[in-house]
Amino acid sequence: MAKYWMRIIAAGVGAELLYAVYIYFIAPSTQVAYQPIGFATVFLLFVLGGVWAGRNIAGSRVLAGVLVGLAGAVFYYILQIPDMLAGEQTYPAIAFFNHGLKIVGGMIGAGLAALPIFAKEA
User: Fold this and answer.
1) How many other β-carbons are positioned within 10 Å of the β-carbon of residue 41?
2) What crossing angle do the helices spanning 5-21 and 93-112 adopt, rounded to 10°?
């Protein structure tokens, strides 16, 4: 698992960055993040990240998917540190549901990576 860390982190951070692009530049409002379409988007992006990270892993793909979701959630909080220190950021309880979807999406995506259609060609 240790040799896959960079791919796992890249998948989590990449999915989180794509989600930020969607929320801040494509969606009509940042409140979309806490609506069903925002939940579906974050879930699907992390499923894709889990598939990408889990394709090359020979061991526990599900663990890799969980780590993809955790990497995305941690990256989100790293970006929020200045706002938290300034006391400007509050987190609604639904935000934790959003982070849970990241973890579940990464886990499902990495599990799907075991399917033959996602097999990496030699």
Assistant:
1) 20
2) 130
Query: How far apart are alpha carbons 82 and 122 in whole angstroms?
Result: 45
Mapped onto helix, strand or coil, the DSSP state of residue 73 is helix
Give the ranges where the chain is alpha helix by DSSP (H).
5-21, 36-54, 61-79, 81-86, 93-112
Question: What residues does each domain of the chain span?
Answer: 2-118
Query: For the segment 49-104, what is each residue's pLDDT rounded down to a tens digit?
Result: 999 999 888 888 899 999 999 999 999 989 888 877 887 767 778 888 999 999 99
Query: What does the alpha-carbon distance between residue 86 and residue 63 come to, in Å, rounded to a whole number?
Result: 35
CB 78 within 8 Å of CB 121: no
Q: What is the DSSP letter of 26?
A: I
What is the SS3 assignment for 89?
Answer: coil
- Residue 35's Cα: distance from chain center in Å? 17
The DSSP call for residue 4 is G
Please check whether residue 60 is in contact with residue 122, taking contact to mean a CB–CB distance below 8 angstroms: no
